[in-house]
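Example 3.2
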Amino acid sequence: MKNKLFAIALLFAAVLGGCKQAPKGENWHVEDGVIVVDEPQRGAGQQSMLEFRTDPIPVVRVGFVGLGMRGPGAVSRFTHLEGVEIKALCDKYADRAHACQRYLEAAGMPAADEYSGEEGYKQLCEREDIDLVYIATNWQTHVDIALYAMEHGKHVAIEVPAAGTVEDCWKLVDCSERTKRHCMMLENCVYDFFELTCLNMAQKGVFGEVLHAEGAYIHNLEPFWADYADNWRLEYNQSHAGDVYPTHGFGPCCEVLNIHRGDKMEYLTSMSTKSVNGLKLAKERMGSETFACGDHIVTLIATKSGKSMEIQHNVFTPRPYNRMYQLTGTEGFANKYPVSGFTLRNSQIDRNLLPDVPTLDEHGFVPDEVKAQLLQAYKHPIHQQIEEKAKQVGGHGGMDFVMDYRLIYCLQHGLPLDQDVYDLAEWCCVSELSAISHANKSMPVKVPDFTRGDWDKVKGLTFYE
């Protein structure tokens, strides 16, 4: 009997030993070896914002919040748009708001009302004569300002990244769905000339089926850290792990792969180096002994249809600027950094469109003259409309003006915006999800479905005209 009881005790101990409790975080748990972040249900009175349209706004009345590094350029660009009234300028510091009046004066536009202080944006949002609030403040304040603006009936456009946590992504999604107001992230890189041309080529099947896409933000910020007011950006990197700035490289990849327009991200896994240069910088500037953001971060994402993406982040080490954009298709390849070029099967050349293209080496980039012909032949219709003016007005070579032009055009014509609130959430949530993954030895993390099941109701990305 004693031997039997002893055997039962051993078996019981073995069972207990094999049933180790799965790890759990504040907002996540593990299911079948995958970390799953909590997802709220759609609230009463909310509606999907897919393909959302409002009544046309022939003259869009705009208020700008945040006039430090990015905001003044936006004010200047908006003076070159037709059908726009700039009603209000707001910044924490009064002198910054006042300084932007010079752009309005130069354009012969009426002076705008000025607001300042920590909560000056509230007075701006409470006005009845503003349709759009354009937010270019530091990252930490994006969500609060956007929520307040939407609750007061305003459409919002938010600089990148619009949100830094999954919870804040859901807040923006839910508020947009509840208030029926557009909430767009100002991701300018999706409007860059190479990216939009490649998108057009992909949609016309030039690359075959695109199976893999890569993006990155590799930009040594060492000369610029001192330019961020109150040291906000370095402090953010010091206290936040993960890819804190994913959207420049990530957004164009998601558009090509039709994320939430026929496909969706299933899970990601991420790995980070330790912080060396970041920590050194924080010690010198802040007296800090810790630094959360690694010097180099790599994140891999799998989609439901069996495709993949890779994004990288590095703002700390001396490297050539690299905002990678790379597409791998069954019939062709595109690459932007560090060398721009295409590799295509000869069968992919439309001889009616490009009759003079010679036989191509399918193991290397096409000749420069062929690349130039491809870029011209497949120039995106948006660039055909506005490229010349965009390059004259400027903003990162013109892509910022294209972004602003499209935002205003869609509002004026009552069209769905090119980027919706689900794009915003999907592209931004990678920050926290990548941090969760590499904090747990690169475990896969499920990407939330911010559309709540509607990800395949729209078939392909459309820029509406």
